Amino acid sequence: MLADYFGIFDTDAKKVVLYYDNKPKFDRLLDKALETYARKRERAKKRSAAARELKQYNWEVPEERVYDSETNHIETAKNHALLPFVQLNEVSNPEKEFVKYLEEHSQWIDWWYKNGDKGKQHYAIAYGKSLFYVDFVIRMKNGHVYLFDTKSAGSDVTAPEKHNALLQYIQEYSTKDTPLYGGVIIQDGSNWLYSKLPIENTTDLLNWDAFYPKNA
Q1: What share of the chain has pLDDT > 70, as a percent?
Q2: How far is CA 98 from the centre of its chain?
Q3: 125: which strand partners?
Q4: What is the C-alpha separation between 68 and 91, in angstroms, rounded?
Q5: Which residues pair with 88 in a beta bridge?
Q6: pTM of the prediction?
Q7: Do residues 153 and 203 touch, judged by C-beta distance below 8 A?
Q8: Distance in angstroms (rounded) separating the CA atoms of residues 193 and 215
Q9: What is the Cα–Cα distance from 73 to 94, expressed in whole angstroms?
Protein backbone atom coordinates (compact mmCIF):
# COMPACT_ATOMS: atom_id res chain seq x y z
CA MET A 1 0.00 0.00 0.00
CA LEU A 2 2.82 2.43 0.86
CA ALA A 3 4.42 1.62 -2.46
CA ASP A 4 1.20 2.45 -4.27
CA TYR A 5 0.46 5.69 -2.43
CA PHE A 6 3.93 7.08 -1.68
CA GLY A 7 6.18 5.44 -4.25
CA ILE A 8 8.16 3.59 -1.58
CA PHE A 9 9.54 0.13 -2.35
CA ASP A 10 8.66 -2.80 -0.10
CA THR A 11 12.03 -2.84 1.62
CA ASP A 12 11.87 0.86 2.46
CA ALA A 13 8.20 0.53 3.44
CA LYS A 14 9.07 -2.01 6.10
CA LYS A 15 11.67 0.35 7.51
CA VAL A 16 9.12 3.16 7.67
CA VAL A 17 6.55 0.99 9.41
CA LEU A 18 8.99 -0.56 11.87
CA TYR A 19 10.79 2.69 12.72
CA TYR A 20 10.17 3.26 16.43
CA ASP A 21 9.35 6.95 16.03
CA ASN A 22 6.58 6.10 13.54
CA LYS A 23 5.00 3.36 15.65
CA PRO A 24 2.50 5.63 17.51
CA LYS A 25 1.29 7.02 14.18
CA PHE A 26 0.66 3.57 12.72
CA ASP A 27 -0.92 2.40 15.98
CA ARG A 28 -3.34 5.31 15.73
CA LEU A 29 -4.11 4.54 12.09
CA LEU A 30 -4.87 0.91 12.97
CA ASP A 31 -7.05 1.94 15.93
CA LYS A 32 -9.04 4.32 13.72
CA ALA A 33 -9.47 1.65 11.06
CA LEU A 34 -10.68 -0.92 13.61
CA GLU A 35 -13.01 1.62 15.23
CA THR A 36 -14.46 2.61 11.84
CA TYR A 37 -14.99 -1.05 10.97
CA ALA A 38 -16.66 -1.74 14.33
CA ARG A 39 -19.04 1.22 13.89
CA LYS A 40 -19.97 0.16 10.36
CA ARG A 41 -20.59 -3.38 11.56
CA GLU A 42 -22.79 -2.14 14.43
CA ARG A 43 -24.84 0.03 12.04
CA ALA A 44 -25.27 -2.96 9.72
CA LYS A 45 -26.45 -5.10 12.65
CA LYS A 46 -28.99 -2.43 13.64
CA ARG A 47 -30.29 -2.19 10.08
CA SER A 48 -30.60 -5.97 9.96
CA ALA A 49 -32.43 -6.04 13.30
CA ALA A 50 -34.77 -3.29 12.15
CA ALA A 51 -35.60 -5.28 9.05
CA ARG A 52 -36.61 -8.19 11.29
CA GLU A 53 -38.81 -6.07 13.59
CA LEU A 54 -42.42 -7.15 13.99
CA LYS A 55 -44.74 -5.63 11.43
CA GLN A 56 -48.25 -4.41 12.14
CA TYR A 57 -51.10 -5.83 10.10
CA ASN A 58 -54.78 -4.95 10.00
CA TRP A 59 -56.30 -8.24 11.06
CA GLU A 60 -59.55 -9.66 9.75
CA VAL A 61 -61.15 -13.07 10.19
CA PRO A 62 -59.77 -15.16 7.31
CA GLU A 63 -62.25 -16.09 4.60
CA GLU A 64 -61.10 -19.69 4.76
CA ARG A 65 -58.69 -21.78 6.77
CA VAL A 66 -56.94 -25.07 6.10
CA TYR A 67 -56.93 -27.68 8.89
CA ASP A 68 -55.12 -30.97 9.23
CA SER A 69 -57.82 -33.65 9.23
CA GLU A 70 -55.63 -36.00 11.26
CA THR A 71 -55.32 -33.62 14.21
CA ASN A 72 -58.66 -31.79 14.02
CA HIS A 73 -62.36 -32.58 13.88
CA ILE A 74 -65.59 -30.74 13.19
CA GLU A 75 -67.36 -29.65 16.37
CA THR A 76 -70.86 -28.27 16.83
CA ALA A 77 -70.87 -24.48 17.15
CA LYS A 78 -73.32 -22.02 15.63
CA ASN A 79 -71.64 -18.72 16.35
CA HIS A 80 -68.05 -19.32 15.23
CA ALA A 81 -66.89 -16.79 12.61
CA LEU A 82 -65.96 -19.64 10.25
CA LEU A 83 -68.35 -22.54 9.78
CA PRO A 84 -68.09 -25.37 10.29
CA PHE A 85 -66.13 -24.92 13.50
CA VAL A 86 -63.03 -27.11 13.49
CA GLN A 87 -61.41 -28.04 16.80
CA LEU A 88 -58.17 -29.74 17.74
CA ASN A 89 -58.52 -33.38 18.78
CA GLU A 90 -56.34 -32.67 21.81
CA VAL A 91 -57.88 -29.32 22.68
CA SER A 92 -57.14 -28.10 26.20
CA ASN A 93 -59.98 -28.33 28.71
CA PRO A 94 -60.10 -24.54 29.32
CA GLU A 95 -60.53 -23.92 25.58
CA LYS A 96 -63.21 -26.59 25.28
CA GLU A 97 -65.16 -25.24 28.25
CA PHE A 98 -64.86 -21.64 27.08
CA VAL A 99 -66.29 -22.59 23.67
CA LYS A 100 -69.31 -24.06 25.48
CA TYR A 101 -69.67 -20.87 27.52
CA LEU A 102 -69.59 -18.67 24.42
CA GLU A 103 -72.17 -20.81 22.64
CA GLU A 104 -74.45 -20.70 25.68
CA HIS A 105 -74.43 -16.89 25.55
CA SER A 106 -74.63 -16.45 21.78
CA GLN A 107 -77.55 -14.04 22.04
CA TRP A 108 -75.10 -11.35 23.20
CA ILE A 109 -72.26 -12.26 20.83
CA ASP A 110 -72.02 -11.21 17.18
CA TRP A 111 -69.33 -13.84 16.51
CA TRP A 112 -66.35 -15.48 18.14
CA TYR A 113 -63.21 -16.88 16.54
CA LYS A 114 -60.84 -19.57 17.77
CA ASN A 115 -57.52 -18.11 16.76
CA GLY A 116 -54.60 -20.05 15.30
CA ASP A 117 -51.13 -20.15 16.82
CA LYS A 118 -48.92 -19.05 13.92
CA GLY A 119 -48.97 -17.14 10.66
CA LYS A 120 -50.07 -13.67 9.54
CA GLN A 121 -53.69 -14.71 9.13
CA HIS A 122 -54.12 -15.05 12.90
CA TYR A 123 -54.35 -12.44 15.64
CA ALA A 124 -50.93 -11.93 17.22
CA ILE A 125 -49.78 -9.68 20.04
CA ALA A 126 -46.20 -8.43 20.43
CA TYR A 127 -44.63 -10.16 23.42
CA GLY A 128 -41.04 -9.10 24.03
CA LYS A 129 -39.24 -9.74 20.73
CA SER A 130 -41.69 -12.40 19.63
CA LEU A 131 -45.43 -12.92 19.28
CA PHE A 132 -48.12 -14.77 21.10
CA TYR A 133 -51.52 -15.63 19.69
CA VAL A 134 -54.59 -15.02 21.83
CA ASP A 135 -56.92 -18.02 21.93
CA PHE A 136 -60.18 -16.19 21.26
CA VAL A 137 -61.32 -13.06 19.45
CA ILE A 138 -64.91 -12.17 20.38
CA ARG A 139 -67.06 -9.44 18.87
CA MET A 140 -70.10 -8.54 20.92
CA LYS A 141 -73.33 -7.28 19.38
CA ASN A 142 -72.67 -3.85 20.87
CA GLY A 143 -69.37 -3.61 18.91
CA HIS A 144 -67.02 -4.32 21.81
CA VAL A 145 -64.17 -6.73 21.06
CA TYR A 146 -62.65 -9.09 23.62
CA LEU A 147 -59.26 -10.77 23.27
CA PHE A 148 -58.91 -13.71 25.65
CA ASP A 149 -56.18 -16.24 26.29
CA THR A 150 -57.60 -19.21 28.21
CA LYS A 151 -55.51 -20.68 31.02
CA SER A 152 -55.80 -22.77 34.15
CA ALA A 153 -54.63 -21.19 37.40
CA GLY A 154 -50.83 -21.42 37.57
CA SER A 155 -50.59 -23.47 34.36
CA ASP A 156 -48.27 -21.13 32.44
CA VAL A 157 -45.38 -19.27 34.05
CA THR A 158 -45.31 -16.80 31.16
CA ALA A 159 -49.04 -16.02 31.43
CA PRO A 160 -48.58 -12.84 33.55
CA GLU A 161 -46.14 -11.38 31.00
CA LYS A 162 -48.49 -12.23 28.13
CA HIS A 163 -51.44 -10.76 30.01
CA ASN A 164 -49.58 -7.53 30.73
CA ALA A 165 -48.40 -7.25 27.11
CA LEU A 166 -51.99 -7.73 25.98
CA LEU A 167 -53.18 -4.96 28.32
CA GLN A 168 -50.60 -2.60 26.79
CA TYR A 169 -51.79 -3.57 23.32
CA ILE A 170 -55.43 -2.94 24.31
CA GLN A 171 -54.57 0.45 25.77
CA GLU A 172 -52.74 1.44 22.59
CA TYR A 173 -55.21 0.19 19.98
CA SER A 174 -58.62 0.50 21.63
CA THR A 175 -60.81 3.14 19.96
CA LYS A 176 -64.19 4.70 20.60
CA ASP A 177 -65.66 2.83 17.63
CA THR A 178 -64.01 -0.48 18.53
CA PRO A 179 -63.29 -0.71 22.26
CA LEU A 180 -60.92 -3.55 23.16
CA TYR A 181 -60.92 -5.59 26.36
CA GLY A 182 -59.46 -8.85 27.53
CA GLY A 183 -56.47 -10.64 28.97
CA VAL A 184 -55.76 -14.06 30.40
CA ILE A 185 -59.08 -15.66 31.37
CA ILE A 186 -59.51 -18.50 33.88
CA GLN A 187 -62.53 -20.61 34.78
CA ASP A 188 -63.54 -20.40 38.43
CA GLY A 189 -66.58 -22.58 39.02
CA SER A 190 -69.32 -21.33 36.70
CA ASN A 191 -67.56 -18.00 36.15
CA TRP A 192 -64.79 -16.95 33.80
CA LEU A 193 -62.46 -14.40 35.39
CA TYR A 194 -59.99 -11.93 33.91
CA SER A 195 -58.07 -8.98 35.29
CA LYS A 196 -58.36 -5.46 33.94
CA LEU A 197 -55.08 -4.64 35.68
CA PRO A 198 -51.53 -6.00 35.32
CA ILE A 199 -50.94 -9.24 37.19
CA GLU A 200 -48.00 -11.03 38.82
CA ASN A 201 -49.49 -14.53 38.81
CA THR A 202 -52.58 -16.49 37.75
CA THR A 203 -53.33 -18.04 41.12
CA ASP A 204 -54.58 -15.02 43.09
CA LEU A 205 -57.93 -14.26 41.42
CA LEU A 206 -59.42 -12.22 44.27
CA ASN A 207 -59.71 -8.90 42.41
CA TRP A 208 -60.40 -10.30 38.96
CA ASP A 209 -63.61 -9.47 37.10
CA ALA A 210 -66.13 -11.96 35.71
CA PHE A 211 -66.81 -12.01 31.97
CA TYR A 212 -70.58 -11.86 31.56
CA PRO A 213 -71.49 -11.56 27.85
CA LYS A 214 -74.81 -9.95 28.73
CA ASN A 215 -73.01 -7.06 30.42
CA ALA A 216 -70.01 -6.89 28.12
Answers
A1: 80
A2: 22
A3: 132
A4: 14
A5: 72
A6: 0.73
A7: yes
A8: 14
A9: 18
